[in-house]
Amino acid sequence: MKSKKIGIYVDAINQTLNGGYGLRYDILRKYCTFPDHEPARMNVYVSYDEHHAKEDENYEAKTARFCNVLRDFEFKVIERRVKRIVNHETGEAICRSSVELEMAADIIKQSKNLDQIYLLTNDEGFIPIIRLAQDNGCKVELIAFDNVPETLKHEVDTFMSGFLIPGLLPIESGGDWGKVGSRVRGVCYDFTHGEGYGFMRYMNTINDNTWITDSRNPNSPYKTIFCHISQFEHHFDSSFLPSRDLIFEFSLMENDKGLISQKIELVSAP
After folding, report:
1. Are 186 and 201 in contact (CB under 8 A)?
2. Where a domain ends, among 103, 132, 164?
3. Which of 87, 141, 191, 231 meets the CB 3.0–4.6 Å disulfide criterion with 241?
4. For the residues 171-185, what does the mean pLDDT come to?
5. Overall domain count for the chain
6. Could you list the residue range(s) of the whole structural domain that residue 198 is in?
7. So what's the pLDDT on residue 154?
8. Is residue 19 located within the same domain as residue 121?
9. What is the pLDDT of residues 193-220, one digit of tens each?
10. Whether 144 and 188 share a structural domain
11. How far is CA 60 from CA 15, 52, 159, 270, in A?
12. Residue at which a domain ends, from 134, 164, 194
């Protein structure tokens, strides 16, 4: 079977400011190119603030280290200076960068030679670019974290919350994702309020069958786990359950009946 040509386009600052701080780019590459897809384009767009660099002596070194790590994983780093425009009447400074424009232009030019695009942004301005890429024959998957506009989710072919991809974001004291005792992230897709229990679904492993959400299918990357109302944070309003929009972090534990979820904490909501 001919491998798909994949394009990955990341607005780094946009994702960092919207829940994606600490994003693991090696895991991102693994997820997007599994099992043998060809990473034809892997672009990360970075804004560099010279004014910030003057105020923070560590900023330049941190930015350089970040960009070098990306290059180690064979991402192309497009680094552009932030322009500051000062309103002389109010003294307010407005920061502008060309990274979104350059990212859009690259997708327009390069999508003609790609089979699938993974887009990491929260910017609704990319909707016309998404449509153009789809017209060029590209499937477009959006990966994002918090503050994702519904219009953007609905325009792409597939939306995947970055919180749900195993290992994409660090988990404090998380252990080995998917193993008993580890912490993972998932959604509560079924809940019976009268009985106070339901079921969580989480991605146990990375494969290219994310559309197979039935965990009983051996080809599915997902697993289902029991949850009880007593394990949710005490202030959580369970009337919102079940929900595919609420992302929870929880511990995988085991009893005589199988896997159960404990210490369930809400980590992301619309």
Report:
1. yes
2. 164
3. 191
4. 91
5. 2
6. 183-268
7. 96
8. yes
9. 999 999 999 999 999 899 999 999 999 9
10. no
11. 19, 9, 34, 34
12. 164
Return d(Cα 33, Cα 223) in angstroms, integer.
22
Residue 81 or 89, more confident: 81
How far is the first Cα of the chain from the last one, in angstroms, to the nearest whole number? Answer: 39
Local structure of residue 71 (DSSP, 8 states): H
Q: By C-alpha distance, which of 229, 209, 205 is closest to 219?
A: 209
Among all chains, which residue has been given the structure tokens 């280290």?
65
The C-alpha atoms of residue 129 and residue 133 are separated, in whole angstroms, by 6
Angle formed by the axes of helices 99-110 and 127-135, nearest 10°: 10
The C-alpha atoms of residue 71 and residue 53 are separated, in whole angstroms, by 22
Residue 13: Cβ within 10 Å count: 18
The pair of structure tokens assigned to 45 is 């767009």
> Is residue 123 in a domain?
yes
Instruction: Examine the domain organization and report whether 158 and 221 are in the same domain.
Output: no
* pLDDT cut 90: percent of the chain above it: 78
* pLDDT at site 51: 72
Q: Contact at 8 Å (CB) between 31 and 64?
A: no
Q: What is the pTM of this model?
A: 0.90
What amino acid occupies position 151?
A: T
Taking residues 102-131, report their average pLDDT.
96
Burial code (b: 16+ CB inside 10 Å, e: under 16) for 251-260 equals bbeeeeeeeb
Residue 39 lies in a domain: yes
CATH of residue 231's domain is 2.40.50.140
240 within domain boundaries: yes
Q: With a cut of 70, say whether residue 87 has pLDDT above it.
A: no
**What CATH number does residue 108 fall under?**
3.40.50.1010
| Cβ pair 247, 266 in contact under 8 A | yes
Residue 267: name the closest of 182, 177, 189, 170 by CA. 170
Assigned token pair, 10: 């990341």
